[in-house]
Amino acid sequence: MTSTAAAGTASAVEFESIWSDLQGVAFSQGYLDVPVGDRKIRTRYLHAGNPQAPALLFLHGSGGHAEAYVRNLAAHAEHFSTWSIDMLGHGYTDKPGHPLEVAHYVDHVIAFLDTIGAQRAHISGESLGGWVAARVAVDHPDRVEKLVLNTAGGSQADPEVMKRIITLSMAAAENPTWDTVQARIKWLMADKSKDYDDIVASRQRVYRQPGFVAAMSDIMALQDPQIRARNLLGQAEYGSITAPTLVVWTSDDPTADVAEGRRIASMIPGARFEVMPGCGHWPQYEDPATFNALHLDFLLGR
C-alpha cells in the first residue's frame, strides 16, 4: 500500500470526539452546591433543554462521569430538562472522604433534585447509576416519574466481575497512563477495535486529580463482598417499585448476561425489557441512535 493510500484509509476512520457530540447542542456545564446532611456537595453537571420542561436525570456508572451521556443530550433536550451529573465522589463532584454505599448516592440524588426544583423526575441510570436509580424508586417513589435501568448493577454479586472492576479501576487511578485508562474504557465496550481516544483523554484528566486514588478506593466499596451484600436489591425491593420501568440490557455486557437483565425486569411489576445487540456496558454511547429512540419512546409513552 502506498503512503497516500494508507493516509486515505486512516482518514476514513471517523474520530470520536466529545466536543463534536456536543456541537450544535445548547448545553451548559456548571456546578451546584447540593446540601447533603451538614455539608454542601459541589456537584458538576451538564444540562440541556428547557428548564421548565419535565426533568430527566442521567446517572453514570462506577468511576464514570457526566460525559457518559454526551450522545444523548441533544435528542432528550427536545423534550426534557436533561441533566447528566458527576455522581457523589466521581468526576469533578466533591469527594466525601469515606466508603460510598448506595444510600449515600441516593441522598445526593434526592438533594440534587431538590436543588434544581424538581419534585419529580425521570431517572435513567447505567451500571452503578441504575443501582442508585432503582433504590431511589424504592425509597422515594414520589420523586420518580419513570425509571430506566440500563445494564444496571445491584442485583447480584459475581466475584470475578467484582475483582475485574477493582483491578482495572484501581490500576487506572493509581497510574493513569493512556494504557491503563484505555483498558478501563475498552472493558465497557463491545467493539474493542476502537481506541475511544477522546473518552480516554477525558477520564485520564479526571483520574489525575490530586487525591483521586483515595476517591476511587471509596467508590470501590460496593465491590467489597460484605458491603455489597447489604446494598443488594432483591425481590422485595424490585417488587416494590411503582414507577413505570424500562430495563435495557445488551448482547455483550461484561458484568452480567441477558438472563440477569431479564430476571431484574421480571421482579419489577409491569417492567418492559429490551436487549440492544452489538453493545457492551455503554449502549447509550455505542449505539446512541437506537438507545435514544428506545429511551424516548418509553419516556414519552409512544
Describe the model.
- This protein is of the alpha/beta class and 302 residues long.
- The protein has a domain of 207 residues: 3-Layer(aba) Sandwich (Rossmann fold).
- It is 44% helix and 18% strand.
- An 8-stranded mixed β-sheet has the order 1-2-4-3-5-6-7-8, sandwiched between helices.
- The N terminus is likely disordered.
- One of its GO terms (cellular component) is membrane.
- Keywords: Hydrolase.
- GO terms for molecular function: monoacylglycerol lipase activity.
- This is 2-hydroxy-6-ketonona-2,4-dienedoic acid hydrolase.
- InterPro entries: AB_hydrolase_1, AB_hydrolase_fold, AB_hydrolase_sf.
Keywords:
single chain, about 300 residues, alpha/beta, Rossmann fold, globular, AB_hydrolase_1, hydrolase, monoacylglycerol lipase activity
Can you lay out the helices and strands and say which pair or pack?
Blueprint: H1 3-12, H2 18-22, E1 27-36, E2 39-48, E3 55-59, H3 73-77, E4 81-85, H4 102-116, E5 121-126, H5 128-139, E6 144-150, H6 159-174, H7 178-188, H8 197-207, H9 212-219, H10 225-231, H11 235-239, E7 245-250, H12 258-267, E8 272-276, H13 283-286, H14 288-300
Parallel strand pairs: 3-4, 3-5, 5-6, 6-7, 7-8
Antiparallel strand pairs: 1-2, 2-4
Helix pairs in contact: 4-5, 6-7, 6-9, 7-8
